[in-house]
Write a structure and sequence with these properties.
The protein has six helices and seven strands, in the order βαβαβααββββαα. The chain is an alpha/beta fold. The longest helix has 16 residues.
Length: about 220
């Protein structure tokens, strides 16, 4: 199940592929990253697949370009991310200036952390191919480092695991006599204080003895 959802314009497929490849170099598995390379607007069924991926991911990364910010589909993905309460990271591609506060296209995102992948020096490169086009894509290394830092702050670094169980529709935090499996780690991870308190209470109950009631 994808942990990171990349929202982008289909006109920026090469940049999106390069960004995904950068995530893979950090140690993310291919299944950790959802990237749609089809032409968006392919029908209700595909739109529902995008909605489901957006709902189940843990963060949405918007690769913002002039084409992306004019796309109804991209705007819909951003609205879904906000509806589901997902962290949204805004990464600027060519054609947008982070320091241009007169650019109304960026106004809705000014209250979020934005990084400029297209600013100089673009010292990190990936060669990617989509369909019959093969080209090198260049990003600003410092901007990539900021994105990685933000993902770590969110607890989404590559070494961590997804909090979402394999089947969130049927996941049960009370498995009864059956023990938790590794695939269900997200159901109990991070509950150390509660577990400690529970063990302490159990220890107290074991050591306490009921008082004897003496007869008169």
């Amino acid at each position: 199940m994808a942990r990171i959802f990349i929202s982008h314009s289909s006109k920026n497929n090469l940049e999106s592929l390069a960004f995904r490849d950068w995530l893979l170099t950090l140690g993310y598995a291919p299944d950790d990253v959802f990237l749609d390379l089809h032409s968006l607007g392919a029908g209700d069924r595909w739109r529902e697949a995008l909605r489901a991926a957006n709902r189940r991911c843990e963060a949405v990364i918007l690769l913002a370009s002039p084409d992306a910010l004019q796309s109804d589909e991209v705007r819909r993905e951003v609205m879904l991310a906000e509806e589901y309460g997902k962290p949204l990271l805004v990464c600027l591609l060519e054609g947008l200036d982070l320091d241009d506060y007169s650019d109304a296209r960026l106004t809705p995102y000014r209250d979020r952390q934005m990084v400029d992948l297209a600013t100089a020096p673009k010292d990190v490169s990936f060669t990617v191919q989509h369909e019959n086009v093969r080209d090198a894509v260049h990003f600003n290394g410092a901007a990539l480092a900021k994105i990685n830092g933000r993902l770590e702050e969110l607890g989404l670094e590559a070494a961590s695991f997804s909090w979402t169980p394999a089947d969130p529709e049927t996941a049960n935090p009370y498995p009864g006599l059956r023990g938790f499996s590794e695939r269900e780690a997200g159901l109990f991870f991070g509950r150390d204080p509660e577990i400690s308190r529970g063990l302490s209470v159990r220890s107290v109950l074991r050591t306490e003895r009921p008082r004897e009631i003496s007869g008169s």
